[in-house]
Design brief:
With 601 residues, the protein is α/β, with parallel strands linked by helices. It is globular and about 90 Å long. The N and C termini lie close together (10 Å). This is Methyltransferase like 25. Pfam families: Methyltransf_32 (PF13679). It comes from Catagonus wagneri (Chacoan peccary).
């Protein structure tokens, strides 16, 4: 490995399993809430089945808990940490032992907070990791590069944070090749290639995404060149200003300066520094040059922007500032030197490219068939969808060329679950969940409704909102109408986004029935509105139930992430693995990255 600093201490498998065990005890009772489908909320009497409290009580407690956490975050965090620090996983009675109904909202909310990723104490701080990866190397930054000029703010935040981490891991492992799975539009791949000079293969299953990524990458390169030309122009302007400052001094001291140059020996010329070239420049001007050079990162050991037209300190100085040394080199020789330098720069830049590829990746994909020049590399994925995230980890553990992995998953509702339909025959051997031995032995199943509600709730938590109650209420009442008036208890077809296109509940029902292929003319307006009036007083039940789902959502994400981290801890050839909070959750709700490095061979 390129660096020698020890990586931060991460929690071992035994500790993680202990925390996983406590989480499973809580979710074993609480998952029934997340797995209840709001479409069937009234038809299946969900509130009566699962909650032994009034909706007013539930709403009041959860709103008070949220307000206290916002007004006094330190006190709320201390309460959670005290519970976690005691090592106890026993909370006041949350569910009734006989009916399994929720009986304590306060205990429910406290347990959910304790078992969130943020409060469970399983994350490695990002800053500690970056410091360890870089060692004594200077941090790569470029304040002048603004990716939000060609990305939205969310994507810009994600790409900058993840690319900085990937670059640091690549330097630590001594690799230059990156494989970006589920690369999509190619933002991360392009940024890694253009800013950090890494050779990136972006693989996506969609041919449309691949072609779009190629075009987008072409535009990004054009933007990058324009940015470079502007930066170089700024330096040239600085040089002209310096030349004007010196003009008056040159006229006065011309004779003295010429004598000084003639009397200077060849040895002294070879030892001349930047200050010797510019003896009459003020210290502030020299400082400005150096600061400008640092801001532009023109030295290869600092930030490399990997432009084809690299330039040296000669380009930063006025022409007459280095006349005494350049005059000794014939113009023809200088031209040949510049040509050779451009060839070397161009040849070097060819290795720092982004290549979009189209391929459907599974856990058994053979990378050598996809990437002909596969070498030691890192495998990364930014919001890899469904099973692609766990498959990324499986490929990492099975391929010797892959030295490290950085994976941020998403779309938990699309994960395949091994024990979700135990009686259904299936030839699939590798599943999205569970991955680790412990959960496989327990035959643990999360459930699609729970994973779906977690995804939706995480989005809402990020912006401080609950689930959209009225649209869910409309759908739940519609389901009761369909059951009573059409005799249909289960329907495979989806209503879709009709709510946003409807002017009223009546309009919503008629449009929905038409889309479902049901005769809406058989239902008079009065019948439809009678259902609305019947359930309107019970809308607060649905609102309170959805708030319970929102509170529980982070725990479901914790379960999925702990499963993946434990899987990596179980592998013999993994030197280090951890969970890192990579993004601001307000900007990017799925903000946790799984990082792992293999043992050196």
């Amino acid at each position: 490995m390129a660096a020698s600093c020890p990586l931060p201490v991460a929690q071992d498998l035994s500790t993680l399993r202990t925390k996983l065990h406590g989480l499973l005890r809580f979710l074993g009772e609480a998952l029934s809430i997340s797995n209840a489908h709001t479409v069937d909320f009234y038809t299946e009497s969900v509130w009566e089945q699962l909650v032994d409290l009034s909706p007013e009580t539930v709403l009041a407690v959860l709103r008070r808990s949220a307000a206290e956490a916002e007004a006094q975050p330190a006190e709320a965090r201390l309460l959670v940490e005290a519970k976690r620090g005691s090592g106890s996983t026993d909370f006041p009675k949350i569910f009734c032992e006989t009916s399994q109904k929720l009986v304590s909202v306060e205990a429910f909310a406290l347990a959910a907070k304790c078992y969130s990723v943020q409060n469970l104490g399983i994350c490695t701080p990002l800053e500690q990791l970056l410091v360890a990866l870089r060692g004594n190397q200077k941090q790569r930054t470029d304040k002048n590069v603004k990716p939000d000029e060609f990305m939205n703010l969310k994507k810009s935040h994600e790409v900058q944070a993840m690319s900085e981490l990937i670059s640091s891991v690549a330097d630590y492992c001594g690799v230059k090749q990156i494989i970006d799975l589920g690369s999509g539009k190619g933002y991360l791949s392009s940024f890694l290639s253009l800013k950090y000079g890494l050779k990136v293969y972006g693989i996506d299953s969609s041919n449309t995404n691949t072609h779009g990524a190629e075009e987008r990458n072409r535009k990004l390169k054009k933007h990058w060149r324009v940015y470079h030309r502007r930066s170089k122009l700024d330096v040239n302007v600085l040089g002209l200003q310096m030349a004007r400052e010196r003009k008056v001094q040159d006229e006065i001291k011309c004779k003295a300066d010429n004598e000084g140059v003639c009397n200077s020996s060849k040895a002294n010329q070879e030892k001349m520094s930047t200050s010797d070239f510019l003896p009459d420049f003020s210290g502030s001007v020299i400082s400005n040059i150096r600061k400008q050079m640092e801001n532009l990162h023109v030295h290869s050991h600092q930030e490399n922007l990997y432009f084809e037209n690299a330039f040296s300190i000669r380009d930063l100085l006025p022409v007459n500032a280095i006349e005494s040394t350049s005059s000794q080199i014939p113009k023809r020789k200088m031209s040949e030197t510049n040509k050779e330098r451009r060839k070397m720069t161009s040849k070097s830049s060819e290795s720092n490219v982004y290549s979009p590829l189209t391929s459907f990746i599974t856990a058994d994909s053979e990378l050598h068939d996809i990437i002909k020049d596969l070498e030691d590399c890192l495998m990364v994925g930014l919001h890899t969808c469904g099973d692609l995230a766990p498959n990324t980890l499986r490929i990492f553990t099975s391929k010797s060329e892959i030295k490290g992995v950085c994976s941020v998953g998403c779309c938990y509702h699309l994960l395949s679950e091994e024990f979700e339909n135990p009686h259904k025959e299936c030839t699939q051997e590798k599943w999205g969940f569970p991955m680790c031995h412990y959960l496989k032995e327990e035959k643990w199943c999360c459930g699609r409704n729970a994973r779906m509600s977690a995804c939706l709730a995480l989005e809402r938590i990020a912006v401080g909102q609950g689930l959209p109650t009225e649209s869910l209420f409309y759908r739940a009442v519609l389901q009761d109408i369909i059951k009573d008036c059409y005799g249909i208890t289960k329907c495979d077809r989806h209503v879709g986004k009709i709510y946003s296109k409807s002017s009223s509940f009546l309009d919503y029902v008629r449009k929905s029935l038409k889309k479902l292929g049901l005769d809406e003319s058989k239902l008079p307006e009065k019948v439809i509105m009678d259902y609305y009036e019947k359930y309107k007083p019970r809308m607060n039940e649905l609102e309170a139930f959805n708030m319970l789902k929102v509170v529980l959502a982070p725990c479901i994400e914790t379960l999925i992430l702990l499963d993946r981290l434990c899987y990596l801890k179980e592998q013999d050839d993994i030197a280090w693995s951890a969970l890192v909070k990579l993004f601001d959750p307000v900007k990017s709700p799925r903000c946790y990255a799984i990082i792992a490095l293999k043992k050196p061979q």
